[in-house]
Amino acid sequence: MLSILLIDDNPNDRLMIERELRKTFPDLAIKSVIDIHTLEHILGAGGFDIVITDYQLHWSDGLTILHKVHSRYPNCPVIMCTDSGSEEVAVEAMKAGLSDYVFKGRHFKRLAGAVGESLKKQQLRENYAKTSAQLAISEERLRLAIEASKMGTWDWNVLTGEVVWSEGHELLFGLEKGSFLGTYEAFFACIHPDDQASIAGAVTFALEKKIEYKYEFRVIWPDGSLHWIASRGKFFDDDTGKSVRSSGLVWDITERKLSEARVQESEENLRFALEAANTIAFTWDLASGEVRRSSNAETQMGLGPNSSFGTFEQKKNAVHPEDRERFLADLDAAFSGTGVYESEYRKVRPDGSVIWLHDKGRVVFDASGTPLRLSGVAIDITDRKQLEYDRARALARERSYLRRLQKLTSASVAINSTLSVAEILQLAADSARQILEVHQVAVNLNPAANWDEGISKFSMSEKYAAWQDYCEEPDGTGIYQKVWQQQQAMRMTQSELEADPAWRDFGKAAGKHPPMRGWLAVPLTTRDGRNLGLIQLSDKYEGEFAEDDETILMQLAQTVSGAIDNARLYEESQQANRMKDEFLATLSHELRSPLNAILGWAQLLQQRSLSPAATGRALETIERNAKLQTQLIDDLLDISRIIRGKLTLNPCAVNLISMVEGAVNTVRLAADAKSIDLRFAIGDLGLETGEFSKLGKVSGNPESELNPRFWVSGDPGRLQQVIWNLLTNAIKFTPRGGRVEIRLSRVDSEVELAVTDTGIGVAPNFLPYVFDSFRQADATITRNYSGLGLGLAIVRQLVELHGGTVWAQSPGLNMGSTFTFRLPAMQVNSIPEEEAQVWADAGNLLGVKILLVDDEVDSREFIRFVLADAGATVMVASSAAEAFEVASQFSPDVLVSDIGMPEEDGYSLVRRLRSLNTQTGKFWAIALTAYARDEDRDRAFAAGFDRHLSKPVQPDLLVETIVQLKQQGLTT
C-alpha cells in the first residue's frame, strides 16, 4: 500500500488531490496535515512513502516544509503542488531537493504521474545506494585481499599509452606512492634488462591472439634489489574488435622463487649426494608394480634410457640369476617382518656388464598391515666388492708369496752350501720349478759371453717326459740374446710368443726345444754387472706368469749369481794359491839359476888360476847373470811400487820414433843371435799402411814431416821400459828364423805402437789374463821359457799411468801375436832453423840475471843448466819464501817460476814482488808450469806474469822467449 503525507490547509484541494491519485493508486493511504502540530506528530511517527505539500500555507510555506521533511527523511521524495508559486520558487525548490513541481487546477492530472515518477526515482536512488554500499564493501574487501596478498592492479589505455597503477602496484615495484609516471615506457623501464625482450614478446603475442596475458619477470627496485613479479591480465576490445584497454593484477612471487631455488638447490644437493655416494633412490608401488627411480639412474649406474620408470618384473629380471633367489627372500623378509629391507646382489645392466648393488629401504603398510610401497636407496658397491675381491686375491697371493719365500730360503741355503757350479745350476733349475710351479725350467750359464763353453741344466715335469733327456746348449742367439744383452727380466704370454716369430727363435736348438707355453726369463749377473747367463721358465701350472713370479725368480737368480760368484771366487783363490806357489817356485828357480853360475865361477876364480880366456868368460858370465838378477829385482820393485801407488813419472816431451830406435838397437844383438828379422815401420797419418824404414832415417832429421806426429808427454825411462819389454818378449817367444815387426802410426789424436811376432802365440783361454801379474801360460817345471811373468803386467800399468791403453791379440797357439798400446799425442811444432840457431848460440843471454824458482830438484837443475849454458847469471830458489829473500838482494831481470809449490804458489810470489816499490819490482816474469789450460794462462797473466810456458818446455823455446823479452828492453 502506498502511503502519502498530504500537507494542504485547503480541504477542497485535498479532496481533488486524493480523488486524482486514487485513480492511479487504488491501494492508497493518505495522511493529511492542516497545521504545524499535526505535521510534527506525523513526521515524528513516520510511515509515509512520499510527501505532497502546498507552497502557500497559513502557518508555513512549501520550502520550509521541504527542509523540515528532508531534515528527518533526506531520501523521501517531496512534490510541491500549488497554484501560488512562481518559477523562481520552483527553481529554488528543485535546487533544495524537491522531486517535482505540479500546478493545481488543470494540471492535477499530472500529479499522479509525478508521484509515480518520484517513487520510481526514489527506488532507483535506494537501489543505487544499496549497490554502492555493497560495491564499497566489495572494493574494500578486494583492497584488503590485494594488500594481504601483496598484489597490485593496473589499467593500461592501449590507445594513449596511459597506465594507471594501484598503490600496491607501486609498492611491489619499490616505488613511492604516486611516483609512477603512468606510461607504458615507465613500466617497461622497471623490468630487468634480461627479461624485457621476453615481456615485450609475451604482451605482443597476447594482444595479437586476444588471449589472457600471463608472465613472470624480475624488477629492479631503486635500491638495486631484485624482486620477482607475476602478472596476469586481459585485453578489452571496442565495438570494432580493436583492443583499446588492458587490466590486470601483479603480485610478488619472490618468496616462491626463492623457495623454488631452495628446493632446486636441495634437489641438486640430493642429486649430488646420491651421485657422490654412487646411490639412486627408488620407490616400488606394490599395487601397481611400478618402480620409480631418481633421475641419476641412467647416468650414475648405466641402467639405460627411461630407467627412471619401470616395473618390478623388470627389476627382478635384471638381478643376476645366481643372486635372484636371495634377493626375493630379502624382500619377503621385509614384507613379513618389521618392514626393514636390505639386500646385496648383482645387477645385469642393459649393455651386459654387471654391477653390485646394496639396497636399503623400508616398507610402508596400511592400517590393516598390508604392504603398500617400498621406498629406499640402491648403493653402487661395485668398487667395494672389487676391493674386497682384490684384497682376498692379494691375501692369497701374499700367503702364496710367503710360502714361496720359505721355499726360496731353503733353496738358497742348499744352493750356497755347494761350491760346484754344475750342482748350483741343477739346484737352481729344480728349485725354480718347485717354487714357481712350472713344468719346465732351464738354467744356462755362459761365462764371458762364450756360449760354446756354457753349462745348461734342465728340470721338467712328467708332462714333458719326452724331453727329459733334452740337453741342447743354447748359442746365445734369438730369444737368449734379448735377455743377456738387455740385462733385464722378460715375461711373455703365450699369445705374445706366438705373435712374434723372433721370440720362438732358439738358435741351433730350434726344432728340438720343448714346446713353450708362456715364458719368463731373468738374467744371471755378477756383482760388477756382467752377464753370466739366464734362468728361463715356461708352462706355468695355472694362468700366465705374473709380476710376483718375476720377483721370486729375480731373487732366486740373485742367489744363484752370488753362489756362482762365490764358487768362482773360491776357485780363483785356490788358483791364486797355486799361482803363488808356482811363482815362489819360479822365483826360487830364477834367482838360484844365476846364483849357481855366479857362485860357481866365483869359487873357481878363487880356488884356481884360470887362463885369461877362461877368466874373461867367467867374468862375462858373472856380469850377465848379475844383470839378470838386477832386472828380476827391478821388476819386483816396480810391481811393488805399482801395487802401493808409489810409482812416479817424470813427464816431458818424448819422440817415440827415437824411443823405438833406441829399443831396437838394444835388442838388435838378441834378434840377430836367433836370426830374427826385426823391422820398424812408420805409418803416416791418413795412410792405411806404412813403409818400413831404415833405422835413423826419421828421428834424426828435424825437417821430417813425420817427426812432429809422434811426440807424446811421458817419462822417457818408463816408456823405454815398455817398448823394451814388448820387444824382448817378442824376440824371446819367437823361434829362430822368425820375424818381429814394430809399427808406429798416428790414429786420430793418439800415437799407436804395435809389436807383431811370428812366435808361439797365446791360447784363447789365456788371452784375457796375459797382462795379469805372476801369470804365465806355462808355469810348470818343464816350461821352455824362463821369467817371473811380470813384464807384461808392468807394461799395462805403465801405459795406463801415461793415460794410454794396451791390448793383446793372437789367432791361437803357434800363430804369433800382436801387442799394441796407444798414448795421447802431443801437439808440437818442428824445430825451426832460426830457433836451432838461437839454441846453438850459447852466449845470447850474457848479462841477463835470472831468478829460477821450482820446488822439483830435477826440473830446477835442468832449467838452471839450460839458462846458465846460454850465458845467463842464474840464482835458484826452492820455494816462494826463499825466492822473495833472494830477489831483494839479487834484483833479477827475469823471474822464471813454477806455479804449483808448497805453502805459497807462483801467483802469490809474483804479486808480492810486483808490489815492491823498488828496483826489485821491475822485471819480466815467465810462468813455467804444468798447468796448461787456457784459464791457467789467463790467471797467470792476471797475477802479473808476462809469459806463460807449459811443461815440458823445449830449452830453445825458453831461451828464445827470454831473448825476445831482452830485445824489448826491461820496463816496468
Number of helices: 27
**What is the CA-CA span between the terminal residues?**
159 Å
Number of strands: 33
Described by the principal axes of the CA atoms, the overall outline is elongated
Structural class: alpha/beta
**How much of the residues is beta strand, in percent?**
15-25%
Q: What would your notes on this structure say?
A:
The protein is α/β, with parallel strands linked by helices. It is 45% helix and 22% strand. It has 27 helices and 33 strands. Helix 13 packs antiparallel against helix 14 (421-436) and helix 20 (716-732) runs antiparallel to helix 21 (791-801). The longest helix is centred in the middle third of the chain and has 61 residues, at 547-607. The chain starts with a strand and ends with a helix.
Write the layout of secondary structure elements.
Elements: E1 2-7, H1 11-24, E2 28-33, H2 36-45, E3 50-53, H3 62-72, E4 78-82, H4 87-96, E5 100-103, H5 109-148, E6 151-157, E7 163-165, H6 167-172, H7 184-189, H8 193-209, E8 213-220, E9 226-237, E10 243-252, H9 254-276, E11 279-285, E12 290-293, H10 297-301, E13 309-311, H11 312-318, H12 321-336, E14 340-348, E15 354-365, E16 371-380, H13 382-416, H14 421-436, E17 438-445, E18 455-460, H15 479-486, E19 490-492, H16 494-499, E20 519-525, E21 531-540, H17 547-607, H18 612-644, E22 652-655, H19 656-673, E23 677-683, E24 711-714, H20 716-732, E25 739-747, E26 750-757, H21 791-801, E27 805-809, E28 817-824, H22 833-840, E29 849-853, H23 857-869, E30 873-877, H24 880-890, E31 894-897, H25 906-915, E32 924-929, H26 934-943, E33 947-950, H27 955-968
Helix pairs in contact: 1-5, 3-4, 13-14, 13-17, 14-17, 17-18, 18-21, 19-20, 20-21, 22-27, 24-25
